[in-house]
Structures are given as C-alpha cells and as structure tokens.
C-alpha cells in the first residue's frame, strides 16, 4: 500500500489519495478514489443542477467519502445556507454510509454541534488550530488531518506531537508538495522511523473505509 493522502485536489488515479471534488461533479473518473461535497465557501454558487449532479456523484462507487463539507465563518453572508447544506450532506453520508471530510474554519463548535447527527467516521481536514481545539474533536472519536502547515508552523507541530496517531491523517490538499514530505516531517517531529507513521495511518484508513 502506498502513502495515504486523505485530502488532495489533484486527480491522481490512485487508491490511496482521496481526491476532493467541489465542482464539475460529472467529471469523476472510474479510476482513483474521490470525496464529493458542496464546499462551504461556495454554497451560494451552486444552482439546482449542480446540486443534483453532486448528489448523483456521491452515490458512485469511486466516491468513498462526502466532503469537503462543513462551515466557514469567512463566508458569514451565507451562513444559513451553509448550515442547511451541511446538515443535508450529513444525512446523505449517513444514508450512503460514507465517511465525512470536514472543512471547518473558525466554526469548530458549530461543526461539532451539527456533527452530532453523523453516524459515520469524521475527518477534520487541514487542521491548523491548537491542542484545546484538537482535543474537542478527538474526544468525539473523530480524526484530524494535517497538511502543509505542519511543515513550518511550530505551534501546530507541538499540537501534532501531542495527538495519538490512531486519530491522525496527512494530506496535501492544494499544496504543491509530495505526500512523502509530510510523512518525513511527521516522522522527524516524532523522532521515529517513517514506518511508524505510515502503518498507523494505514490502519486508520482501513478502519474509516472498512477495508479488509
Ligand atoms: Zn481542500
């Protein structure tokens, strides 16, 4: 098994890099694995046709997760619509039994509140906050994914080191970096061999996606 990348926007046609789609939902290929979601920063841009095609795409076998979905305070103007679509997509995730990939910016308490309805595994992607916020998420049994910010952000590195690996993922998201770089950084931070990062994250991946 190659390195797990739980959230990327590059189509890699790989079975270990989960490619997140938030537009052009009809373009999903059969190769590769995907997450599909109505993005909280873009809720105001989706018309009925786009939503229909997103909901149709969510049912495809190549789509393993629902996301990125969630709440983003920067898009305050459309908060109510964000909440409505977030709740709706949690319901869909439950119906399809597909995990949720969460986009959460300055809205962790609200996200956790609505996620009480979730009956599937939950991954908070692109985590950049401190340990107290991380603890709130981990206490719910959810996972936290770290992206390129982990490479330089000392406070985030400290947070990463305090979190159990069995609730962690790594991701490239939009950063022009190889996922390998994140695994190497993680291993360096933990002062351990890279295998000791790779294996627990593979186990997390198998658990979240119910792989044998
Ligand atoms: Zn993303």
Helix-strand layout with pairing:
Blueprint: E1 5-8, E2 17-21, E3 33-36, H1 48-58, E4 63-72, H2 79-96, E5 100-105, H3 108-115, E6 122-124, H4 131-139, E7 143-146, H5 154-161, E8 168-170, H6 179-190, H7 195-208
Parallel strand pairs: 1-2, 2-3, 3-4, 4-5, 5-6, 6-7, 7-8
The structure holds zinc ion.
Residues 7, 9, 20, 68, 173 line the site of zinc ion.
Structure characteristics:
212 residues, 8-stranded parallel beta sheet, 38% helix, globular, binds zinc ion
Whole-number count of domains? 1
Q: What is the residue-mean pLDDT, rounded to a whole number?
A: 96
Fraction of residues in H or I helices: 25-40%
Separation of termini?
13 Å
Strand order of the largest sheet: 1-2-3-4-5-6-7-8
Which structural class is indicated by helix and strand composition?
alpha/beta
Which segments are poorly predicted (pLDDT under 50) over 5 or more consecutive residues? Answer: none
Oligomer: single chain
List the secondary-structure elements in sequence, H or E.
Answer: EEEHEHEHEHEHEHH
How many separate helices? 7
The CATH superfamily title = Metal-dependent hydrolases
Q: How much of the residues is beta strand, in percent?
A: 15-25%
Enter the CATH topology name: TIM Barrel
Major sheet details? 8 strands, parallel
Number of separate strands: 8
Radius of gyration: 16 Å
CATH class: Alpha Beta
If classified by CATH, what would the architecture be?
Alpha-Beta Barrel
Bound molecules: zinc ion
